[in-house]
Amino acid sequence: MKGVYVLVISVDEDVEVDVGALGSISFEKGLYAYVGSAQNSLEKRIEWHLGRVKRKFWHIDYLLDNEVVRVVKVFYKEADKTEECRIAEKLSENGVAVEGFGCSDCGCVSHLFRVDDYGFLRSFMFEM
Ligand SMILES: [Zn+2]
Question: Which of 5, 76, 80, 98 has the fewest CB atoms below 10 angstroms from its CB?
């Protein structure tokens, strides 16, 4: 399946994370939502994010590698890559952008957002 996914991430305490080329970013304790896409195997990509320790390839790998950070929920949808940025737009309406995160190859402000709640994702995505 090719598609887009949203990782709902819990940051269990305030933490400073070195995000590769982005530099050091402070994350407040709380919930975050990250949107990404996989045009080959969505299942494999999600498995990658849920696994621990590996070479760090995407910005999100640096965040998820931190010991106070964990994925609490995964949403997905069969779609092409353009849907990824549409979902980023929706997340921006419901959260606060972590600027420049995960969007090196598009025009979005971010693909990672601090959110209070992730229930709104259920209206346009499937829960895993
Ligand atoms: Zn984008």
Answer: 80
Dihedral, CA of residue 23, residue 84, residue 115 and residue 63, to nearest 10:
-30
Is 126 part of a structural domain of the chain? no
Domain count, the chain: 1
CB 83 within 8 A of CB 39: no
Residue 125 domain flag? no
Q: Tell me the CA–centroid distance for residue 106 and ligand 1, in Å.
A: 5
Residue 51 lies in a domain: yes
Enclosing domain of residue 49: 3-120
Tens of each residue's pLDDT in the chain, 128 residues:
899 999 999 999 999 999 998 999 999 999 999 999 998 899 999 998 898 766 888 999 999 999 999 999 999 999 998 999 999 999 999 999 999 999 988 999 999 999 999 999 999 999 99
Distance 113 CA to ligand 1 centre (A): 12
Q: From the CA of 35, how far away is ligand 1's center (Å)?
A: 9
Rounded to the nearest angstrom, the distance between the alpha carbon of 15 and the centre of ligand 1 is 25
Residue 53 Cα to ligand 1 middle (Å):
26
Quote the pTM value: 0.94
